[in-house]
Amino acid sequence: MSNTTGPHSLLLTSPNLPPVSETEAKVWYYGLPSRPKLIARTGSVLFALLPSFDAGYPDYPETKEIRIVGEHKIQDVWEDGLASKIHALLDEKQVDWTSTDVVRIAAVERWKDLRSSVVLWIGVVPESLSYERGVDVALRCQRVLVDDYGIEDVDVEIRTSSVVKAADARPRLFEPASCREDNEKRLEVMEPLAYTLGIQICGRDTQEVEGTAGFFLNEKGEGDGGRLLLVTARHVVLPDLDDDEGFEHKEDPEERKQCDVLVLNDASFKKHVAAVEQAIWLRDRSVDYSKRDLASMLNETGERAEERRKATQKEGEQAEKAADLLTDYRVEVLQHWAISEDNRVLGHVIYSPPMDVDPTSGYARDVAVIAVDPDKVDPASFPGNMIDLGGEHSRIDLRLMMPRNPKNVHPFSILFSRQLGLRGIVPDEEMRNPVDYDEDGNPCIAVLMRGATSGFKIGHANSIFSYTRDDKGRVSKQWPILPIPKAKLRNNSYDHLRTTFGKVGDSGAVVVDAVGRVGGIVACGAGDRKCEFDLTYVTPVGAVLDFVKTGKGLEGVKMREGPDEKTLEEQFFRKR
């Protein structure tokens, strides 16, 4: 791409860019998870494909990614009037908009050259806005930035985007695995039935909608007694309830039917059992291959041959141990979980406020409280909220992917255990003014999540809050989470070039910072494909707890804090 010259003020009377071509519309956001379609934009960067150096191959687009804004004067005015003016302008022009975000977007290879690539990013319903109307709206939005606020280094881009809700003697939930070898595939297949956070849940009568359990609460605060509660997004467990209607559990079944919550719907449970059986089969094959390899080495002599024998024997022993563990797990699942749907009941919904927008905070009241069945998780012995760091990344890779800035107040550390205890919360003020930094010195909160669909993910929280607009025209504030920059990834496969933080099915999942402070729960996401999100939106924990405490008898609830690092370390060494 090449640059034209001229100040931003030249854009305020007429666009100096040619109309968006069909090719530009399709590939301008190449590299983003949902690859939305560009409608219109301001700015001075001309679109051009990169030339192919291989004869016979077509030219190709630059790979883009989204990053946090960092320090910028737009942050001081965005929530203090600017966003409202933009929304009013969009409504005046009858734009069917879905979200407004402020982010940096640029080609992966050109980040150092494009430090001013800040974009007011407007999402609209697909097929609802033409280029002609779109470019007029974009220019009018830029007039607001320049004329009303003196902001001349922010471009306006309009793209197709839908804001999607991210919901896709009974046996106890399993205790999580304490550790793993970094070079061994984690037994991640067992995690869906463990009590670490990221549990896949659904309403018993609405199994077509699945989401993720958020975090556990003590009903009586720090005092003994009371039930163990769980908070999640309302639309996960009460998708059919009218938004204007609150929910309160009644003991009398004639007043209101109990809303049970399941761990995994029927289809997901069958899929889980099949995944366990597949994992056992793979490890059995590994054991067989190791035995064959050892047999073929019997006549080999020398130091190198002995080293190969030891390595092969160790691999076989590890695979056999894993197969035995998984086999025992499979027996437990089939004997106690598969015999009845009743055995997958995690608890029942006891309270959910009407899902409108709170006029004071501006956040949607998208929360529901679940009373956890004590036969599933014993409140007395439950160690507290923990997120499992297991997945495809080793502990060393995790450390390399997290920000490493000596100024950070909350640095990520390599843990002996693969669990991270949740302790404390991220204050609202810190979400907007982070005290930690990325490697480039930008204020940044790195966040972690384990979603039922996405698994374990790392992202960067944007300090400039976003706004979403639902199909009823209700506008709510959101804490936006961006995918981790591609340069930080420890895997270069094609799938990882299209990084996402959240997907459909992650609604309700808890989002925490590098030291386990709770930031909030996933509410929804924005993208042009309904399964993958370019941005994931989170309801801050302060608002979540405020909404929960409006329930009768829930005024004293408090988050159930997880074990600290020292406790997890002691548990790790006891189990070795």
UniProtKB/TrEMBL annotation:
Protein name: Predicted protein
SUPFAM superfamilies registered for this protein in UniProt: Trypsin-like serine proteases
Start-end of Basic and acidic residues biased regions: 301-319
Positions of the UniProt region annotated as Disordered: 299-319
